[in-house]
Amino acid sequence: MGFFDSEIVQQELKQLSEEYQSLIQIGGNYGKFDREGKKLFIEQWEALMERYRIFMKRFELSEDFMAQMTMQQLKTQLNQFGITPQQMFDQMHLTLERMKSELDKQP
Fold it and tell me: What is the 8-class DSSP label of residue 28?
């Protein structure tokens, strides 16, 4: 069975995508959130990023041709922006840490 043939993989990919789209959509109103709303938003992003990191590790470790091709395509796309997958995660982590820091400064 191929990597993408797994129902679990398909489900997780669909869920990650839907959650990502949802957070992007509601993130447009981040400035209107109260402190607790901002805190929850940041926590949801952190959880999503951790799940995404694990999912990508599955791609990396899989011997499936399609999984390897997908990982290579992602690396190529990120390389066009001059970053690696690890740098992408590091940058997102820094952004979330900055958001938390700003949150801590609010009354």
Answer: T
